[in-house]
Write a structure and sequence with these properties.
Chains A, B: Keywords: Aminoacyl-tRNA synthetase, ATP-binding, Cytoplasm, Ligase, Nucleotide-binding, Protein biosynthesis. The structure is a homodimer. Chain A is α+β, with helices and mostly antiparallel strands. Helices cover 28% and strands 28% of the residues of chain A.
Chain lengths: 571, 571
């Protein structure tokens, strides 16, 4: 491809609308253009990247027995009503009516569609397992689409659905997909982690998220530098911290003026935060007030708390509510003297129960208890793991101190079990002639999101740095002076030889200053730049610059192709 | 791929809903399943065919300087309002609102989108020509979707748009696309014709339709067996037929009881239909009554008549209207004595004006004129080519008798000129610094329709007969008895060797009776069937049956791969 013909309109300025680096760089480098909020055109360079990602995904799906098909984007409402998700999805679903006033949606996902399809044609265990997938546009009417392709309203997904005759089969399908995903993101040249995830609203349980590691990631991840443990911080389990035994001192109340925070009371009493008990008051959807207790230096993990309480939602209680139910004041809450009832209940983190002679609020303004000893001085309704993991907490698997990082979710694997097959009567007859619901899994890759995540992980102040396997082109040949016939002729020769050797190359034949061409090469992010200037001609050396490192090599004209191939294999 | 794992659920019965053969066979052979009226899932076999067609299309587009991109399916209403098509498209357009109540449509086509895209980034003649294309779902809310994939509401199209600086550039783009389309349908293994087409509602002028020849085609085509002339019958031009000179006899009125039709009056008077004048009465949108005259053995081409009258619509006039305006009766209409006015006007086909001593209705019940001579006895308001071409009419180019056939439109190339670039202000600065609108063309291939058309052209009573280049697999290996170890082992060997030699092969390893497997092989339409039975084992000969001809060959085990490759190259 010649740059003079390539439709990659680069911009000198960063558009004001773009908040994140991938969005900024894709606009500037001529990869995407906005059509409406969260809706983009993929220009030729982006489309090449997407097709490379798609091909990697496709090969790995096929390698695991996946069969590609293509289901409708517009889906009739009826099947969504059968599973109850027509109402659950709310405003996030794009809905429309046809000319006969029938309801349709633009598929945000395809569980209903594929389960309906398979139930019509699969009757026997002999037809299982089935692993069916597609790569296509998905739709989600985000209330605030932003971050370019990171949170769009129209985006490209690969979604595979597995149908097995039992849970052992599902486990096998799940493991195959887990393995395929590991290969996919490795082959894309990305640094990523598979994270134990909360399975969330889509249903089922047993799930991993595949996260591309990037500082701008919206998800906090904890991982163990020693064992394989990796988890979303919202999900990460924790073992109780065991404190050394101490003699139990008598419970005492004391004045602590102006000490509404843990920091303040620690300072006032001269005790470490780890020796205080933090009490947070939540109100559940059942109108019960919850006193959630964690150690003063810990944080409550609200998702864990929600799950442990088996509630639909919890919210921090307002001062009004707290005062009405307990007569106490925010800032001085504590468990001592609280009786568990339908109105109020104490939930304590495991680590709290191992504390000795601790400090906690006295449910009176400006006063705390000291020498509080759990069990002796208060009785929780529930003791559970309700705290948020932190950097340097012990790994729940091996005890080594964990580390934290941030990631962008690019894939997720789910065990759905029989949630959809039961709702939609997708059954089969097993070996013994018994009718059973199929056991399902679903497995998604955000294809367009992976492109954006690759940039969030691989860029510098000059532009994108594409990993070789998903680069739109692998190299660009830049004649310093396009009007110099000898330079152009050598550049043409190199351009043609590289393409002839399966190195996808662009020739920047534009009549622009070298600085403009170099800037565009860096911005677009070709892994290699081959510069053809006067020196190259006089000395017979081909100058090759590696985009990622900035390193420049000179290869002899006789065997530069072999040298470049070798160089690329190491990138 | 093993048939035991392949998701291709075949049906023994033809579903009642399927009216045309491609629809019936794709349902029966497990290629598609209906999700809603005109909305289908493409199962793995269909998806393989579609991807092969797509790849052929892609290669030919790229060969002509096409650059692939991918535009949104959901398009904001504003750009459609700028061109006025938001209202023009009517109920055929799927429309929806997002959560913020903004209007969108599901793209039926992308002129507005691509023109808006290009106008934002192209400023100079140096950036032209541009040829940008995509392959994606398109949407049309047909009032009565039918014929399976032939007239769906969600379907796959390739659409390329060309942007040139002048009409000479457009001509070049158009010619390149015409050539690409010829290559595409040839490479798909289809018999087709490029037809001069009426450009219709999409706008512009200068257009060819690419028609796959099939008896079930909805379009009537006329072509010359001698020269290259091919046209849609609606568009085919005709030269006037010249009759030999005759002496003009005196106009005479005569009783012709019970002769409301040309056939009846011909018989009654004993003259050939070619010596009678047929008069049809139309009413225009301007409420003018038109007496359209063609020779008695000809038919009026209403589209030509409409275009010649420059009307928006014409309808056959009701008896009431005719009687009210002319006092005459249907069945006995004629031009003699009719004065052209705002209320009524005569339009005659060229050939009518060359007739001598003809017969026509006398505008009185049960009476005709004989010895009618145009010009002497009546004066048309307009003489024009308004008749429908028939088989054996002289070719308008070379005069040889034309033939007719039927076709399915699978592609269309259009010159749009500046219709959209003017409406959307997509301008550029030319070599002289002058701002001009870009000159555009658009070029579509119905990808999913091509698959259906291929079946309409290639099938027999047993099923589909795929052309090799777009067959989902090229061969199937059928062990007669899957429980026979020696047979299965030979079948496995052949299966693996064929795939190893790039012959895409299915192994029918199902534990089914041979009859079932042969029936499925014919139904699915693999070009070659390799049968492995006891005879193959004992005699060392591989049996290969050609699906299209039913011809069976036996190849020696030592070199059967070469023989099969050779056989396939001739299919």
């Amino acid at each position: 491809m010649r740059a003079s013909q390539l439709y990659a309109p680069t911009l000198r300025e960063t558009p004001a609308e773009a908040e994140v680096i991938s969005h900024q760089l894709m606009l500037r480098a001529g990869f995407i253009r906005k059509a409406a909020g969260g809706i983009y055109s993929y220009l030729p360079l982006a489309w090449r990247v997407l097709r490379k990602i798609e091909n990697i995904v496709r090969e790995e799906m096929d390698a695991k027995g996946g069969q590609e098909l293509f289901m409708p984007v517009i889906q009739p409402a009826e099947m969504w009503m059968e599973t109850g998700r027509w109402s659950v999805y709310g405003d996030e679903m794009f809905r429309l009516k046809d000319r006969h006033n029938r309801d349709f949606c633009l598929g945000p996902t395809h569980e209903e569609m594929i389960t309906t399809l398979v139930r019509g044609d699969v009757r026997s265990y002999r037809q299982l397992p089935l692993r069916l997938y597609q790569i296509q546009n998905k739709y989600r009417d985000e209330i605030r689409p932003r971050f370019g392709l990171m949170r769009g309203r129209e985006f490209i997904m690969k979604d595979l659905y597995s149908f097995d005759k039992d849970e052992a089969g599902l486990d096998e399908s799940y493991d195959k997909m887990y393995d395929a995903y590991t290969k996919i993101f490795s082959r894309c040249g990305l640094t990523f982690r598979a994270v134990e995830a909360d399975s969330g609203a889509i249903g089922g349980s047993g799930s991993h998220e595949f996260m591309v590691i990037a500082d701008s990631g919206e998800a906090a991840i904890v991982y163990c530098p020693s064992c394989e443990y990796t988890a979303n911080v919202e999900k990460a389990e924790l073992h109780p911290i065991i404190h050394a035994d101490e003699e139990l001192l008598p419970l005492t109340i004391t004045d602590t003026p102006g000490t509404k925070t843990i920091a303040a009371v620690s300072k006032y009493l001269g005790v470490a935060p780890a020796r205080t008990i933090k009490t947070l008051a939540y109100i559940t959807d059942g109108e019960q007030l919850i006193f959630a207790l964690v150690r003063g230096d810990h944080e409550v993990n609200e998702i864990k708390l929600l799950n442990k309480l088996k509630c639909l939602r919890i919210d921090l209680a307002t001062e009004d509510v707290i005062t009405r139910i307990t007569g106490s004041t925010v800032g001085y809450l504590g468990p001592v003297g609280v009786q568990n009832s339908e109105k109020v209940a104490i939930v304590a983190d495991h680590s709290v129960m191992n504390m000795y002679n601790a400090v906690c609020g006295a449910n009176q303004p400006e006063r705390h208890y000291i020498n509080v000893n759990p069990k002796r001085d208060f009785s929780p309704f529930l003791v559970a793991d309700i705290r948020l993991i932190r950097e340097n907490d012990p790994c729940p698997r091996c005890g080594i101190k964990v580390k934290t990082t941030r990631g962008i979710e690019v894939g997720q694997v789910f065990k759905l079990y029989t949630k959809y097959s039961k709702a939609l009567q997708a059954t089969f007859i097993d070996e013994n002639g018994i009718e059973k619901p199929m056991v399902m899994g679903c497995y998604g890759v955000g294809v367009s999101r992976t492109m954006a995540a690759a940039i969030e992980q691989n860029y510098d102040e000059n532009g994108i740095i594409w990993p070789v396997p998903i680069a739109p082109y692998q190299a660009v040949v830049v004649p310093v002076n396009a009007k110099d016939e000898a330079q152009m002729s050598l550049a043409e020769k190199i351009y043609s030889e590289l393409n002839g050797n399966s190195i996808e190359t662009v020739l920047d034949d534009r009549n622009e200053r070298p600085g403009v061409k170099f800037k565009d090469a860096d911005l677009i992010g070709y892994p290699l730049r081959i510069t053809v200037g006067p020196k190259a001609l006089s000395e017979g050396l081909i100058e090759v610059k590696i985009r990622r490192t900035g390193e420049t090599s000179f290869f002899k004209a006789e065997d530069y192709i072999g040298s470049i191939t070798q160089l690329m294999s190491g990138l």
